[in-house]
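quick one, two chains, predict together pls
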Amino acid sequence: MTATEKIVGNTANFVDERLGAAKWVKKSLNKVFPDHWTFMFGEVCMYSFVILLLSGTFLTFWFDPSQKEVVYNGAYEPLQGLKMSAAYASTLNISFEIRGGLLMRQIHHWAANIFMAAIVAHLLRVFFTGAFRKPREFNWILGILLLTLGLVEGLLGYSLPDDLLSGTGLRITSAIIQAIPVVGTYVSFFLFGGEFPGTDFIPRIFTLHILIIPGIFLAVITIHVMLVWYQKHTQFPGVGRTEKNVVGHPILPVYMAKAGGFFFVVFGITAFISAVASINPIWLYGPYTPGQISAGSQPDWYMGWLDGLVRMAPPLETHAFGHTISWNILIPAVIIPGIIFTGMALYPFIESWITGDKREHHLLDRPRNVPNRTALGVMSITFVMVALINGGNDIIATNFDLSINQIMWFSRIGIFILPPLAFIITKRLCLSLQRADRELLLHGAETGRLLRLPHGEFVEVHAPISPEKAYQLQSHEQLVPLEIADVDARGVRRPGALKNKLKRRLSKAHAVSIPKVTEQELKEIENH
Amino acid sequence: MKRLSRYRRHKAAGPLLLIFALLAIGTTFSVASATVKESQSVFDRSASIEEGKQIFLKGCSSCHGLNAEGGSIAPSLIGVGAASVDFQVGTGRMPMADMSTQAMRKPRVYNEEETAALAAYIASLAPGPAVPGESELNYERDGNTAEGGELFRNNCAMCHNFAGQGGALTQGKYAPTLMGVEPKHIYEAMITGPQSMPVFSDKTITPEEKLSIIKWIKSAEAEPNLGGATMGRIGPVTEGLLAWVLGLGLLIGIAVWLTMRAR
């Protein structure tokens, strides 16, 4: 035993005798994680969050969360002598006078954009592969909560510098809050400490942005990751992979090295983008005054689709009993997002109700094998994309010589037509892919080699596919519709006829799929 | 005098005399009433009016009418002033290439003298804002960048974007970018209100304030991209695109590489 080993051994012993950690560590280090590139999105989220915490802490050292009016005398000449809030002045100070301040600001903002993008990518991966199914429904809901928190945290974050663009965003936020019937005005006055803009919102947003929401974030992320740890990671189907095992690399050394290295890669890429590309150049926007607005005022991308929905809403208002209800804000900015987020959170339960599947699932679905779910996902993406395009309608209009009105009408009609179209097309594509899989299993892969038979006929030689591939193609379950009889065994009508009818219809739609290759068919082919 | 007398029986002699007379009366009136500042036009008016008219008849009258009275497809130019002509023709917007939603900036068709002649001709029809002279455009001396920025955000940014990059208006119309526009043309646009733009009279925005705005625009134009590539200075739309394409794109590439099975 060398001296180093002795020291390490003794230290480990010392800790273990007092904390009894060895057993836990041993068990944890033997934890196995499956490998697939789509499993890395969650890690990107986590690492971006760490980057956000680090860069955000740096920024708090110099940011002055106050709306106290000051006269700017800093380094940026085009704003010298202007009156502005201390928050804006200190952000300018961070950008131009603090060493590395601008880079840190840009790292913080780019990391936020990448964080949200990775959350969405992670969510889509989990959705399309069915990783949200039992027993992971709670973790799915926590994920939706993290997404929602991210949206709010991002909005609050880019509102803090108190520049013209962020003030515009807050003005819209206050308008959306006020559009909520009955309580809206009170809530808005409560949040902003009176009529917008007031002098309170920066300090309040600051506390929310740097303390309360990150605190909740940390707690929820911890539970989220612990649940993954406890419930184990899902894996794609393959030879040797079952519902009862996890095939992959143990945490030490391979997984740890990869994951640890990946953190630095994420940090490196974020820092690289921050070093070469400007983000939120607040000095160009100028200080916020309610009387000013810039053409092409946009929120960050993750809020852009909401902005797009508000932009496409026709001017509908009702006046009754001395109250105004602004449907044009209420529907796109409150009701539709409410439906979307609630629907997303409840989706695991909805799907399990439709399929009647109450079993645990640790093996993932290939998206094509559950056409209905995949089509639903693509439909939702299409909906958000149409809204997002409309959110940037003015930018698109100027840069592509289009009419903003045409884009708006395209979105207004498209938001109703394109998502269902996407649903139908995706479902058909999934079924076609299933047919292709079936074809591959039965006849093998096309080789491109043509053979001329003695009697003159040309045939293409098909090569048999590898057993691993074959296993992957047929390991999924055949979807079957639920059998729900209207009458029970004794011929008595069962209660909830309408509910049963709905369930039967949905279940039938969900189970549409191409029949799997049977053993018999395979045998026939072999003898063929 | 002899050269002039040769044209005394010319067809245009009558109308021209009338125009001269009206111009004389108008000028006298405007000088006497002194509401409009005496323009320090760089143009030699009398000599170029006739030349301007000829250019007008050839190049502009098919839409704007033989006497610049306007028509069903083009507005009357009587009273728009030399500044308007100098802006529209000097930036290549007029003559229009096609009857699209809005005249766009393009290489100019008429050179400086021809533009000046056209401007003089139109100015001779009725009084209007004159082309600002060099001394009126000394924005470096008379302007204030910070004040100009404030004025710009108050009056211009809602259409031209916070950094003067331009923006969308209704029905395919747009507020063009202000980058690379001559100070003279910016000034003229403010006093004449071309296309969808409102007129910013000297009462709304004083000449000094106009110079401040120009100074700020020029400073924004010259400002290096302090934070790195700006992707057009048009806000978060391009930023979001970059975050997805470059940010997530690179990360996916790395993730694929990291999880690749060892061969």
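The first strand of chain A starts at residue 32 and ends at 33.
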